[in-house]
Structures are given as C-alpha cells and as structure tokens.
Design a protein that fits this description.
Immunoglobulin-like; 7 helices; seven-stranded mixed beta sheet; mainly beta; Ig_V-set; 8% helix; Immunoglobulin_dom; 6 domains; immunoglobulin domain
C-alpha cells in the first residue's frame, strides 16, 4: 500500500536514497514515534488527523543563586526547520522576574555559528534594528507582536535563505538582584521550497457504477528531516470536502461522507513509485461528480512532539461528470416469433414466449431485477440474486447478458393483453476488496414498450329458462325457482357454469330497485348479496346447483318484501394458463314475477272449563283453543288474566312466551306458585290449572293470546295479531267461620320517652276451627299527625309468626307481641312527638278447611283507628334548666363569700401590734 511509500519518504534510513529524487538522505534526528492508523474499521466516521497537545517546550538556562528563584527566559524549541518564502514565528517569554509586570524584549541574530550578533528588533527601542534589517522591519516583513505582558512573538512574513542562523531573545533586567538567565537562543534552518504536486487529469466522464482512479505525484528534495502528506478533495459548487488524507505519519484519515465507503473497500489506495499516489473510487454514483483536487503538504516534527506544517501545494486534477445509469439504460420487449412486431395473435392452448433485452453503458457493473407485467399485474420476477418469484405458472430465465425470456404455456382468453418488461438497475456501493458491501443503491428503473397479445376464442352459447317449482299463494309459504341451461355449445374443455340471482321490486313501486341476492362462480364459491347475507347464512334462503345445468333459488318462508321479479344470469368459466377460473361469457334470463294477494291474519280463541271448582280447596282447570286464518307458521304468547267482577281491575296470573318461557304475574301470591300450571297441550291448545282454590280466587278467568312470526331463524319475533277468549267463572260458597277485628290502647295520651301500647284483637264466630287450624296475618299502619296525611306500614307479623318492623324516621322503637291466638300487641318504646297520629291494624285470617283439608284465606279485616297523642311536658322540660340555674347561683354566691373573706383578711390586717392598756377607761376615751 501507499502507506509504506509515505513512511519511507518520511523516515529514511542512514545512507538510503530518496524514493522521489534518488539522492542520499541524511539521518534525521527525531524522537521515537508510534504510528497509529487514523481510520478505525469499526467506526462510521474516522477520527481526524492526530494533533499533539498545545505544549510549547522551553529551552531553559537556570543559574542558581543561594537557592532563590531566578529569572527564566525561554524560546521555541529548535532547531526550527522552515521553507523559503513561508512565514516564520518564534515565541519568547520570561518568568520568575521582579519589577514591572510588562517586560521588554530584544531580538538578535547571527548568520554564522561563531559570528557577531546583529540586532533585529526591540519592543521599546524603535531604532534598535541593524541597518541591514531596518527596511524589512519598516516594511513589516520582520515584526514583533506582544502576546502577553511577559510573552512576545518574532514574525518573518517571508523567510529567506539568509535568515537561517541563531536567534537570541533578551530581556533587560528589572530585578533588584541579578539572577537566572536573561537570554535564550534557538537555531532557524531555512530550506528551499522543493515541494512539487503534479496530478494526472482524470477522465471527464465516468459511467455510474464504474471505477475512477485519481493519480497524484507529490515529491520534494530531502535536505532536512521533513515529512509528506497527500490529500484528495472533491469540490462541488462552493463547498469542498476531503476524501482521504495519507500521512504525515503514514496513517489514513477520511472525510465524514467517505468513511463508510473506505471501510467497505469502496475507496482504496494503490501503491505507487517515485512519489506517485493513486486513489481508486469504486462504483461511482452521481454524487461523486465534481472537481477533484490534490494537496501535498510538507511537515516537520519538532522536539516536544509537535507537528508543524511548513509548506503545502494544492492543484486541481480536473472535473469529472458521472453519467447516470438512466441515460444509457434501455429496455425492449419483443416476441421470439416476431421480433419486429409489437402485436401477437395466439390460439387457445398455444405457448407464449417473449424476450426482454437490457442494454447500458455500464451493464457489467449493474445488478438487474427483471419483472414481466400483464397490464398492471406482476406475473413473474427475477431478483438481482437470480431467484425467480412467480405469481402464475409462467417461467422466466436469463439467456445471456441482458437477455431474459418469459414463457407461458397453454394460453387462454384471460392471458390476452399488454405485456411489458420492467427493469430495475442496482449498484453495490461496497468495494471490490470487501467482496461487495451489500449496500445496494437503485440507480435507475425503466419499462419497455408493450407487446399486445391476443388470444382468439369462440364464445360459448346456451339458452336459459326460468320456471317456478313452488309458487307461494300467501305469506310464509315456500318459494322455489329453477334456472335451466340448455343447448350449450362451444364450452371449452374443463369449462363450468355459474349463476347469479337478482331481485327487482314490482313495477309501479316507487322507487323500483334491484338487488343482488347471491351467486355461484365457476369454482362453486357462494358470493352473498349485502341485503340477503343473514337470510342465506341462516338457511332461510339457499342457492344450489342441483344438476350440471340446473340452478335453484329457495325461500323457506316467503315474506311480502320478497314479492317482485326474479332473474338468473348464467356465466361460462374456463381455466387459464395460471390455473385460475375466468369468466368468458354470461347470459341473462327473462324476469319472472312472484306475487300473491296478501290477506290480514286473524286469530280466534275459545276458553272452556275442564274441571269445576265447586268447593274451596278444589282444582280448577281451563283450556284455550285457537284457530287462525292467513297466518301460516307462527309462535304464540299466552296471558292468563282474571278479575273479581266485571267492573274490577284486571290481574295477570301467568304468562307463556313464544319461546315457552313461563312467568308469574304480579297478582300471584309467591307462596301459591306451585299450585299454578300453564302448558301447551296441543298445536293450538293451552291449559291453565289452579289447585286448592280459595275464596280470594273467585272471579272470571280468560286467555289473551298473541300470534308472532319470524322472517328467518335467529331474528326477533314480530307481532302478527292477538285475541282474547271468552271468560270462565270460578264461583263457590264456603260456609266457613266469620271473623271480626278491634283495636284499643291503654292510654291514648302519653308523655315523651314513655311507652305506648296498642292491642289488636280478633274474634271468630260460626263454625269455629281448632286453635291449631287457625292463623292470622296482622299489619299495623300509621298516619302521621304532622308532615302530611301519608299512611305507612310500621310493623307486621305473618301467619307463621315472623315479625317485620319497617324502617322509620323516628327515635322510638317498635315491637310486636302475640299474647294469645287472637290477640296481638304493638309496643312503641321511647315515644317521640313524631309518633303522634292515627294507628290501625289489618288482619287476614287463615283457617284449615274441614271439607277440603286445605288452608283457606278468609277476607281481609280492617280495624277502627286509634289516635295517639304524645304530650309536651312543661314541668319535665323545665326541671333541668331550673336545677342548673339554682346550682349555678349557689356556686357563684359561695365563691363571692369566700373571695370577700380572703380579701378582708389579707388587706385589712394591722401589721404593728399595740398592747391594750390596763386602763380601760383611758382606752375608751381615746376611742
């Protein structure tokens, strides 16, 4: 690789020859280096050229003075190798000094190692320069620039050969004690500019996908240890981007857009001799077009590891235009039988052969994907890998470079049409050295002109006859239509027949509409119309092929919406070359009208007594027989209803739905539901049975029957008509006991929080049953004195002794007590003002009938009303406030008395004691 060539030029052995000039090379003095590649194979973007850290080594001369710090003057490390005509800069700084912060500097030079010094320039003396240098200083060719208070830079705009020599940087002393060094020197070597860049002009045009070689010759005369680097760049418009850089250490760095291609081998260096460097770009694309440049740079590696660019030269190599593949790509489709014709006529079962020819300037660099299309439908494709994907029985093979042949065996009328060849050209952007990177880029897509293929065929013919097998005369009757196919001719081998049924509303209906019922294709597949999908799937309607030439449409239950005109269309199908069934002909029958005179359905129901209930506890049974007209098949719902008299309210005893779901009505006692039976005893008969009749069951009974129909299975029932039967009466006399009820209270006026008691007493007369054969259901009701006249139930006890107290908005509590068989007591504990109002009780006696042995319910009894008053107790309400007030008054009085005594004792006591005189009279006078 060229990396070796650059290293040989950059690091010659002693006595070796320059690979570019052939002259002996001196042995360079430079520190040992480790060369590392600038391109990481695992990175998408390689790192830039390595730049050493900005560390300026110093040449220091230190003079020790009794261990104290001393002035230190340093300059750029040398020797400094620069090229004639190029700028030169030498830095100088001073540290560890005393005096003012800003220091002055003086520069001197000596052209010979032992020669006298010559003044160059000073920061404080404008007349400091030697006469031989004053003009260059005045013109600015030589100048000094202050960088910091303690740092300056000597600059030479264009170095000359006579500028080579030793340079001194001095600083005048500002220290109180002279110590350290006040000057430092460095050697400047000026070499002639021998860098030569000679690029070879690349071709002006390159086909997309071809390789492009960029050759550039970079040399220089090696008089000092310098190094070379070569850079190729691509300029497109006003922007320029580096492609690849080789050197100066022998490493390689690539531009961001070219890193992936270099890693894949799409960009590679080719070794050369005598300073020739070649860069090869494989499989160029249109983005590679532009102006290419070659740059040669000469470097020096100074002490401290810093790389310095001393001279560079850039030359334009030339402009390259990449010709897109689409400009040269051409696709042509022809017939092998007639290459010059774009139309082809075939007979059924013939073979079809078409050729696709592809040409391009860079055909060998392209990977082609070839597809044959019939109209807009892909029939077969050969991928760029050579794999063939076919949607039909056709074949595709590659017969030569850019030649592809399509073969179709046994064509039919379906295979007629326009055939075109579509070609997609791909370029692998991976390099040759990588064996192809697999990063494919579609360069162009072209489609050939069409080749028209016609397949001659004699159309089949036949005759259609539509006949009614079953013609409905009324709603819900079946309908059956038969479509016969006769006189079939020219049906191709393997051909089949299909049918399509349509329904049109009767003429005169506005608007008259047509709907697709369903069809059977050549393969026997059933295709459903949107309006008839549910009926066909449920089996209410069916489309069948009963014979090879006979098709039938059946409707199990014809509805009024089915009246109209029906027609059948029979189609002929054949098998094409791809094995698919295709329609080649279709004929439609004459319409046939299906209609009838719709009549309103009617229903008649007759109820009769099957078993008479003459005494209590007997069984009553009634049958309801129905007759229909113009109804057909239907379902029935039955309601058993009753009323005590012809003027009383109607009660629903039981119901039976069309789906035979039995339910009890709201008027049915839950405890007697086992005694009620309702069944369907025949196709048109229903029976109702009531076991153990009681006095409360007396009244009129009848059936209310409704007829329901369904258009198809799975749908909801639709009401057709309904009717009520005659009424059958249950009437019997029961000479049972008679009952009476009374209510009384021990006290109708109570104080709050007291207990009120109310007694509900029942008595029996006549044929009195035994105690064990008698039970009562007792309920208490209450009408509030304040807050409205609403009557609410407050408590109850059933005939089995179960007590239930209702939830009330009161703080009082209720309890029910049974004192004996005929006496029930209601207790109200902790009465409240809200308990004032009217109370009464309601009782329902039950007794065991001696004649039937069944429990019989007697009539309901209601007592008179008792008014309860909860009085407001004035004295009771004042007791506590008076007690609290008296207690508070006594407490305050005692507290005031104690407080007065304490104050008098503490405040009025004489602190000086005077003994009483013995002379009482004198004391009295003094008083």
């Amino acid at each position: 690789m060229s990396v070796m060539g650059v290293q040989a030029a950059a690091d010659p052995e002693p006595g070796a020859q320059d690979p570019h000039t052939g002259e002996p090379q001196p042995s360079p003095r430079r520190p040992a280096q480790t060369t590392r590649p600038l391109v990481n194979e695992n990175d998408e973007k390689p790192p830039p050229l390595p730049q050493p850290r900005r560390i300026v080594p110093r040449v220091q001369l230190l003079v020790s003075n009794r261990g104290c710090s001393a002035r230190v003057v340093t300059v750029s490390p040398g020797p400094l190798i620069r090229v004639e005509g190029q700028p030169v800069s030498i830095r100088c700084d001073v540290n560890e000094y005393s005096g003012p912060r800003e220091q002055d500097f003086e520069w001197m030079t000596s052209r010979e190692a032992s020669g006298a010094r010559m003044k160059i320039i000073s920061t404080f003396d404008a007349s400091y320069s030697h006469s031989s240098l004053s003009k260059r200083v005045a013109s600015g060719d030589i100048s000094v620039v202050r960088l910091e208070d303690n740092e300056v830079e000597l600059k030479i705009a264009e170095a000359k050969a006579l500028d080579a020599g030793l340079y001194w940087c001095q600083t005048p002393s500002t220290d109180s004690v002279i110590s350290g060094n006040y000057e430092a020197q460095v050697q400047l070597i000026v070499i002639p500019n021998t860098l030569s860049v000679s690029p070879q002009t690349p071709p002006q045009e390159a086909a997309e996908g071809s390789d492009l070689t960029l050759s550039c010759n970079v040399t220089r005369a090696l008089t000092q240890p310098t190094f070379l680097s070569v850079t190729w760049s691509l300029k497109s418009g006003a922007t320029s981007e580096e492609i690849l850089t080789l050197g100066p250490q022998g490493g390689v760095a690539t531009g961001a857009k070219f890193a992936r291609r270099y890693a894949d081998g799409g960009i590679r260096l080719v070794p050369g001799k005598n300073g020739l460097f070649e860069l090869v770009i494989s499989r160029v694309t249109t983005s590679d077009g532009g102006t290419y440049e070659c740059n040669g740079t000469e470097w020096t590696h100074e002490n401290g590891g810093k790389w310095i660019k001393i001279v560079e030269n850039t030359k334009e190599m030339g402009t390259v235009k990449v010709i897109p593949t689409g400009q040269s790509l051409a696709v042509r489709a022809t017939s092998s039988a007639s290459p010059s014709s774009t139309s082809l006529l075939l007979s059924p079962s013939d073979a079809l052969t078409l050729l696709c020819s592809v040409t391009a300037d860079n055909l060998q660099a392209l990977a082609l994907e070839v597809t044959w299309l019939a109209g807009d439908r892909d029939i077969v494709t050969m991928e760029r890998s050579g794999i063939v994907i076919s949607n039909t029985s056709s074949s595709l093979e590659r017969t030569g470079a850019g030649e592809y042949r399509l073969g179709v065996r046994g064509v039919s009328a379906e295979d007629g049409g326009d055939y075109t060849c579509r070609v997609r050209a791909f370029i692998d952007k991976g390099g040759k050295s990588a064996g192809g990177g697999g990063r494919w880029h579609m360069a162009a897509e072209k489609r050939s002109g069409p080749v028209t293929v016609k397949v001659s065929q004699i159309m089949p013919s036949y005759t259609l006859t539509l006949e009614p097998a079953l013609n409905p005369q009324m709603t819900a009757e079946p309908t059956e239509l038969a479509c016969h196919v006769t006189n079939v001719t020219h049906l191709p081998p393997g051909g089949r027949l299909g049918v399509t049924w349509e329904h049109t509303s009767l003429p005169g209906e506005a608007p008259q509409t047509s709907h697709h019922i369903g069809s059977l294709d050549g393969s026997g597949n059933l295709l459903l119309g949107s309006m008839y999908t549910d009926r066909l799937r449920s089996g209410v309607m069916s489309l069948t092929k009963v014979q090879p030439n006979t098709f039938k449409l059946q409707i199990i239950r014809t509805q009024e919406i089915d009246m109209g005109q029906y027609s059948c269309s029979v189609s002929a199908w054949s098998v094409n070359s791809q094995g698919d069934m295709v329609k080649i002909a279709e004929y439609k029958s004459s319409p046939m009208t299906v209609r009838w005179d719709p009549k309103r359905p009617s229903l008649n129901v007759v109820a009769k007594r099957v078993r008479e209930a003459s005494v209590g506890g007997a069984t009553f049974e009634m049958s309801c027989t129905l007759t229909t007209e113009n109804l057909g098949e239907a379902g029935y719902s039955v309601l058993i209803q009753s009323q005590e008299s012809l003027e009383s309210n109607v009660r629903t005893i039981m119901t039976l739905s069309p789906d035979n779901v039995l339910q009890h009505g709201g008027a049915t006692d839950p405890n007697r539901r086992d005694s009620l039976v309702l069944t369907k005893s025949g196709p048109a008969e229903f029976r109702f049975r009531l076991a153990g009749v009681q006095l409360s069951d007396r009244g009129f009974y009848w059936c209310d029957i409704t007829a329901w129909t369904k258009q198809q299975a799975g749908q909801t029932w639709t009401r057709a008509t309904s009717a009520e039967s005659n009424k059958v009466r249950i009437d019997f006399q029961e000479n049972g006991p008679s009952f009476s009820i009374a209510i009384q209270s021990d006290d109708t006026s109570v104080y709050p929080s007291k207990t009120a008691k109310m007694e509900c007493s029942l008595s029996v007369s006549g044929s009195s049953p035994k105690t064990d054969d008698l039970a009562y259901e007792v309920r208490w009701f209450f009408t509030r004195l304040r807050g409205g006249q609403t009557t609410t139930q407050v408590a109850s006890v059933d005939r089995f002794g179960i007590v239930k107290a209702e939830i009330r908005n009161s703080s009082s509590e209720l309890s029910v007590e049974r004192r004996d068989t005929h006496t029930y007591l209601l207790n109200i504990f902790g009465t409240h003002d809200s308990d004032s109002g009217e109370y009464y009780c309601v009782a329902t006696p039950w007794y065991l009938s001696a004649s039937t042995g069944a429990w019989t319910q007697a009539g309901e009894l209601m007592s008179s009303r008792v008014f309860l008053t909860v009085q407001f107790a004035v004295w009771d309400s004042l007791q506590l406030p008076l007690l609290y007030g008296a207690s508070a008054s006594i407490g305050v009085g005692l507290f005031s008395l104690v407080l007065g005594l304490v104050c008098a004792h503490c405040c009025c006591r004489n602190t000086t004691h005077t003994p009483r005189s013995r002379n009482k009279l004198m004391d009295l006078e003094m008083d």
